[in-house]
UniProtKB/TrEMBL annotation:
PROSITE patterns given in the database record: HTH_ARAC_FAMILY_1, HTH_ARAC_FAMILY_2
Keyword Transcription in record: yes
InterPro entries: Homeodomain-like_sf, HTH_AraC, HTH_AraC-typ_CS, Tscrpt_reg_AraC-type_HTH
Source species of the chain: Aeribacillus pallidus
Domain called HTH araC/xylS-type: residue spans: 179-277
Coiled-coil residue spans: none
Xref: SUPFAM superfamilies: Homeodomain-like
Record's keyword terms, sorted: DNA-binding, Transcription, Transcription regulation
GO molecular function terms attached to this record: DNA-binding transcription factor activity; sequence-specific DNA binding
Annotated protein name in UniProt: AraC family transcriptional regulator
Length: 280
């Protein structure tokens, strides 16, 4: 289900939330940057702001709710809240975080996330936060331009990680159910297995399983399964003469047409063009 508010398109259900190409963003403006170090509890349990706003957590944990998105956030997580939408929050532990309000030209044309996103490159994130700390409460035109650059960089980093995440850079998995599910996915990815089948094996609904998988890995389980299948598909395209239908069946897809549609969506080119372009 999608939610439309003032012509901005939000992905309001579970899953890693893709943005449109943020490389074309121009004229980002920072309206506020505050740094709290530390805060024990929020003075207001909810608030509403006139611009897009983000909470960037350095330390601690807090509960949040933005529209139908709710949960806990900690280091590595960034909470996005759209203009004029209430943000509910409650500190669970003492917090250190950056709060920024921003806008940019033609913002209504971009698919910004709503709720929590996860940055996987925490070293890069820590470096960004160090630079932001050095400019906290400094509202000069120059410092705000630098802050805008840093926020833009985070948007690009998230988009890049979302588009290019590989199986090999998955974070350490603490949830034992999800760890076993991933093992099953690796063993059965190239069969007709479905997310519903996997969830049922662990006594979970598809929604419950997706929520737990997303919290552990940072992407939905269907996205992870697709990564596994397309990695094998790319190898078969380059190293064999199998037809598209053959490759589809060997990678867990029911037919070549559906496989080609998924491949083209993720790789931005058809399987045939991929083979022509990259085969040596």
């Amino acid at each position: 289900m999608h939610t439309f508010i003032k012509n901005i398109y939000f992905f309001s259900k579970f899953g890693r939330m893709p943005m449109s190409d943020v490389s074309t963003i121009t004229e980002m403006k920072i309206h506020q940057h505050s740094y709290w170090n530390p805060i024990i509890q929020f003075q207001l349990s909810e608030d509403t702001y006139p611009h897009w706003n983000i909470f960037c957590i350095e330390e601690g944990i807090f509960e949040y709710q933005v529209m139908d998105q709710k949960g806990e956030a900690q280091f590595g997580d960034i909470i996005f809240c759209p203009p004029n939408i209430p943000l509910k929050r409650k500190a669970i532990t003492p917090l250190k975080f950056h709060f920024l309000r921003f806008s940019f030209k033609n913002i209504e044309h971009y698919h910004l996330p709503i709720g929590k996103i996860k940055i996987l490159d925490t070293d890069r994130l820590s470096s960004t936060y160090t630079h932001l700390r050095s400019m906290a409460f400094n509202e000069t035109e120059l410092s705000n331009r630098w802050k805008a650059h840093l926020i833009y960089d985070l948007l690009q980093l998230y988009n890049m990680e979302n588009q290019l995440l590989t199986i090999d850079n998955q974070p350490k998995i603490k949830d034992p159910v999800i760890a076993k599910a991933i093992q099953q996915m690796h063993e059965q990815a190239f069969t007709n297995i479905t997310i519903q089948n996997i969830a049922a094996n662990f006594g979970l609904s598809s929604v419950q399983f997706t929520r737990r998988f997303q919290a552990s890995i940072g992407i939905p389980p269907i996205e992870y399964l697709t990564l596994l299948r397309l990695r094998k598909a790319r190898t078969l395209l380059l190293e064999t003469d199998y037809t598209i239908d053959d490759i589809a069946s060997r990678c867990g897809y029911s037919n070549g047409f559906y496989f080609s549609r998924i491949f083209s969506k993720k790789m931005k080119m058809s399987p045939s063009n991929f083979r022509k372009l990259h085969r040596i």
